[in-house]
From TrEMBL:
One matching Pfam family: FAD_binding_3
Domain FAD-binding, chain residue ranges per copy: 5-320
Keywords: Monooxygenase, Oxidoreductase
Domain of life per record: Bacteria
InterPro entries: FAD-bd (IPR002938), FAD-dep_Monooxygenase_BioMet (IPR050493), FAD/NAD-bd_sf (IPR036188)
Gene3D superfamilies: FAD/NAD(P)-binding domain
Name under which the protein is recorded: 2-polyprenyl-6-methoxyphenol hydroxylase
Signal peptide feature range: none
Amino acid sequence: MNGRALIVGGGIAGLAAARGLLDRGWEVEVRERHPGPPDIGGALGMWPPALEALDRLGLGARVRATGSVPTAARLLASDGRSLARLDARAPSARLVARSALLEILVGALPEGTVRWNTPVTAEEVASGTGTAGFAVVVGADGLNGAVRRGAFPGAPSPRELGTVAYRGAVPGHTGVFTETWGRGRVFGATPMDGHATNWYAAVRADLAPDPRADPLPLLRRLYGGWHAGVVRVLDALPGTPVDRRTLYDLPALPSYVRGRHVLIGDSAHAMAPNLGRGACESLVDAAALAAALGEAPAVAAGLARYDRVRRRPAGRLVRASRAMSGLATATRLTGLRDGALRTAGALLG
């Protein structure tokens, strides 16, 4: 079937869903409150499920052409000792700059599909003002989005993970993915493109309590004594933008669907970044929603199919990501943790 769909949110999930629904013959309007795609920078790991979803949207080849494949992957201790080699998994992931992915998604839509600078409020969603005439209203506007707040009364609020993330990019290419674990903090560096290295840090919130603090001295204090690979990134930070944000995830909902309203991406299942699956699951949601609505005989049946296919797998990833966040930023028994990782890494080869 087909009809008219309103997508609230012009990020990865919303743009991908628009492409999928247009391919299925739907009339689509995307409303985004920002003047352009909400690009917070950095690189995204595209795991096989995300690449398969992009293939279904007809965009897989373009994304593969712009991404980088790590030549190796390492989990390290703060002194540089190896905790685990993840080389067997490295070729299955492709690192893509968020800006490049957003450019591909926007370019895949007809001119005028996205209405930039057009916010939608929770009150408008709840009352139906401004959404009349649409068979489906898709919430793709984040964990505090208007559709979640307006159409899902009683939905649980975002919950803090107890960590703060910093991220950015520095000049110079790396072919190796590394993630380094210490006491209460993590530092990662990944390929991004042929000219830059993507980096990220996650620290326990009590180690970075002031959101107004200059991030460079803080990062130097927290990571300056770590191994040379981390220090090399720190030395390149001056003059580059650094994004800081408190991290949250979302408790499970009994359904991603209520009436004609449906949630995808972070609006449905915002998760800790530690498994690198947030953007991936947004793309999988988009492809699954387009297929369900395109193949079902009625909207209600299509939305029910989407919910059945996506809610439980995404919920498992939310729980697993939260557990990994706690493990990576643990402050107690870190010696036992690191020893167990080295043993597991040796057994897995």
